[in-house]
Design brief:
Rossmann fold, 9 helices, binds S-adenosylmethionine, single chain, alpha/beta, 9-stranded mixed β-sheet
């Protein structure tokens, strides 16, 4: 099977060079830095302290590009951006505010602007491991239901598409710190289930020179602001 990575898939479907791009839930800021290298003017918003700290540590000269905010309440004027991206972040917005987060994306986009939303599919071996800590099946369904409101929110929606990607963790500790870093509320469950999660991580992941790899499926939407 052919794989792509999350950043390449953005570039394959959105023209980013010279564009002002807002990355909602930017995590450690990998996409922000990647976009800047490709000639975009990116800003990330991130509400997780640990993730924002990682972004600032990786990119200390551009601290102003990482804003402490949530997707459902964006601190930007109307019609500020050409592109808004959500990479695995929409399902982290509180369930009853996911539609509001998309309405906020619509508000801060210029007419004709693009909202690009990638969401992981709750299936596969990686999901078998992560669900021991946090089963995201339902919240991901809610995120898809929110995207289904695109037309009512003032977006034109192309057909939803998908790709598969590979995610590699240097070791179990790297996996654990990623899982808890993106949602600190998972710490207690990780504490309780660590041994079982570690066993399943090694059972389901494919070990290689770089660490342990999981294949996962991603669905993505490209919405255009009318
Ligand atoms: C799975 S991570 C993805 C991070 C990054 N986009 C990436 O692809 O590596 C989800 C991110 O959404 C963030 N998040 C949590 N609540 C959010 C909210 N209400 N609005 C926007 N992002 C949120 C988390 O802090 C976390 O960094």
């Amino acid at each position: 099977m052919t794989h792509t990575n999350d950043h390449d898939n953005v570039a394959a479907h959105v023209d980013v060079a010279g564009q002002q791009v807002l990355d909602v839930g930017c995590g450690a800021g990998g996409l922000v830095r990647w976009l800047r290298e490709r000639g975009a003017e990116p800003v990330g918003v991130e509400c997780g302290d640990a993730m924002r700290a990682m972004a600032l540590e990786a990119d200390p000269d551009n601290a102003l590009d990482y804003v402490n905010a949530v997707g459902q309440d964006l601190p930007f004027d109307d019609a500020t951006f050409d592109v808004v991206t959500f990479i695995y972040s929409l399902h982290h917005v509180p369930e009853n505010e996911m539609v509001l987060a998309l309405a906020e994306a619509h508000r801060v986009l210029r007419p004709g602007g693009i909202a690009y939303i990638a969401e992981p599919v709750a299936a596969g071996l990686g999901h078998q491991v992560s669900r021991l800590i946090d089963d995201e099946t339902e919240v991901r369904e809610h995120a898809q239901a929110a995207i289904d409101q695109a037309d009512a929110l003032g977006f034109d929606r192309a057909t939803q598409r998908s790709y598969t990607t590979l995610r590699t963790y240097a070791d179990f500790e790297a996996y654990e710190s990623m899982m808890v870093g993106i949602d600190p509320d998972r710490a207690a469950a990780m504490e309780t289930h660590r041994d079982a999660v570690r066993d399943l991580f090694h059972e389901h992941g494919t070990a290689g020179d770089d660490g342990v790899t999981f294949e996962s499926s991603v669905v993505f939407d490209v919405l255009t602001k009318r």
